[in-house]
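Field log, afternoon session.

UNIT: design team B
ACTIVITY: writing a sequence onto a fixed backbone
BACKBONE:
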C-alpha cells in the first residue's frame, strides 16, 4: 500500500474526494489492472520492452517502490541486491519444485508464497 493525503478537493474515477482525505493505493491489484497491463498474471517480461513499456503508461503504473516525491530511496540498491543474490543462486544450484506445484500468494508487508515455497536446491 502507498499512503497519501489529498492536498485539495479532487475526483478519483468519478468519485468526489475532499481535501485532507487519507488515501491508500493498493499496488498489487493496480499492477493487475487492464488495459494498463495486458494479461497481467502471465509471465511476460516483454511487457517492459521499449516497444510496449506497459510500466511507463503512467508514473504510478509500475510502483513496487512507490512513486513521485516519496519513491523508495533504496530502489536501485534493492533491485541490484535481488539480482546479485538470485544470480549466485541460479549459478550454484539446480532448482526444482514438487510435480504439479502451484504457487499460492499470501500477503504480509508484501506478497509472499503462502504455502511454504517448497523449492529444493541441489548444489551443482
Ligand atoms: C526490494 C526492496 C524494497 C522495496 C520493495 C521497497 C519498497 C518501498 C515502498 C513501496 C515505499 C513507499 C513509497 C511511496 O510511498 O511512494 C518505500 C519507501 C521507502 N524506502 Fe523502500 N523498498 C525497498 C528497499 C529499501 C532499501 C534497501 C532502503 C534503504 C536503503 C529503503 C528505504 C526507503 C525509505 C527511506 C522510504 C521512504 C521514502 C519517503 O517517504 O520519502 N527501501 N520503499
Amino acid at each position: 500500500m502507498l499512503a497519501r493525503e489529498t492536498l485539495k478537493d479532487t475526483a478519483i474515477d468519478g468519485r468526489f474526494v475532499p481535501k485532507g482525505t487519507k488515501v491508500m493505493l493498493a499496488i498489487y491489484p493496480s499492477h493487475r489492472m487492464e488495459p494498463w497491463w495486458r494479461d497481467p498474471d502471465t509471465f511476460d517480461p516483454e511487457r517492459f520492452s521499449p516497444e510496449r513499456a506497459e510500466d511507463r503508461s503512467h508514473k504510478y503504473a509500475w510502483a513496487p517502490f512507490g512513486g513521485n516525491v516519496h519513491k523508495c530511496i533504496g530502489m536501485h540498491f534493492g533491485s541490484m541486491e535481488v539480482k546479485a543474490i538470485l544470480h549466485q543462486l541460479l549459478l550454484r544450484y539446480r532448482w526444482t519444485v514438487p510435480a504439479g506445484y502451484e504457487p499460492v500468494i499470501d500477503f504480509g508487508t508484501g506478497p509472499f508464497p503462502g504455502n511454504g515455497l517448497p523449492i529444493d536446491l541441489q548444489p551443482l
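LOG NOTE: Residues 2-72 form one domain.
NEXT ACTIVITY: expression trials, pending approval
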